[in-house]
Amino acid sequence: xxxxxxxDLGIEFPIFAFTHxxxxxxxxxxxxxxGVLGAVGYSPxxxxxxxxxxxxxxxxxxxxxxxxxxNKYEGMDENMSTEELTKMLxxxxxxxxxxxxxxxxxxxxxxxxxxxDDNTMQLIGWTEATATPQVEVALRHPKMxxxxxxxxxxxxxxxxxxxxxxxxxxxxxxxxxxxxxxxDADVDIIIAQGGxxxxxxxxxxxxxLWPQAVKAVAPRPVLAAxxxxxxxxxxxxxxLGCQGAWTGSQWLMVEEAENxxxxxxxxxxxxxxxxxxxxxxxGKPCRMLKNEWTEAxxxxxxxxxxxxxxxxxxxxVAVAATHKWPDQTIDVAFNPVGQVVGQFEKVExxxxxxxxxxxxxxxxxSHLDELNARAMG
Length: 377
Description:
This protein is an alpha/beta fold. It has 14 helices and eleven strands.
């Protein structure tokens, strides 16, 4: 399974694990993969704490950080400080949306109090102004060797800064056009995410997108994302020209994850058709488990979701409640997950998942070798 990306980053397997849990980052990297910590939602101070913990526990293994700077968002052309931009955006959020979100939570039994709005109207991540301090924190950690942007091409000055520090830049895309924009901006690794993927994704399926992106940016390396939850699917990605797999949903279903048994059972119970691309949490299409929150925002008689990052400033109260009361908020929780959720049957240790994927990959490629040998007579 070794590819050039493995040599470039000093890892055993080209398996990248996006997660918001520092324990999973460490477990994946120790098992030969490459753990990537999702930084959106972390203040620079909180991110420093998380990365210090990772540094202390990961040994000599490298890891990455994922940020979110969309190509387009409200207020992106304003030359303002973070505080000024936050105030401007707060003034743009209609009270109708805030009241609808809060009442929706209360109607579903979430025990909000009058002062339980710490995360409402906050702006953590989602813009260049707020992501730049996260990048500066990440670059202070030598074992952190890759910064990925989940939405769009990172700004040129940020790419130059990361390269100047000797680290690599990755960026997700949902079309060959976006892949070429990344390559033109000197992004080192292109991550092509099909519409099956959890979180922000486009509409083109993975098996169509992956070879298109590979061809568009060759010889620049492409990682496959969207719909990967087995070694066979990794084999398919490499067969289509990708140099590795960028995975996310699987890491919700490991013992090291912060998810509770109730949350994990919801994933086990879900089928692949129980996910939906919804703008209801972030303002951009994001694949997640369908629930009462996503359905409510689709109702023609309710407010339309706002653009990014305004909608996240509205949904912050729900995101915070999901962390505080994970088992009581299943019906209104922010649960990004891909269609691969239909494959999940149990919770495993991270190392067991990595071992299983490698064995499944070997079985799949051995089967192809047998077919080729048969064809040769």
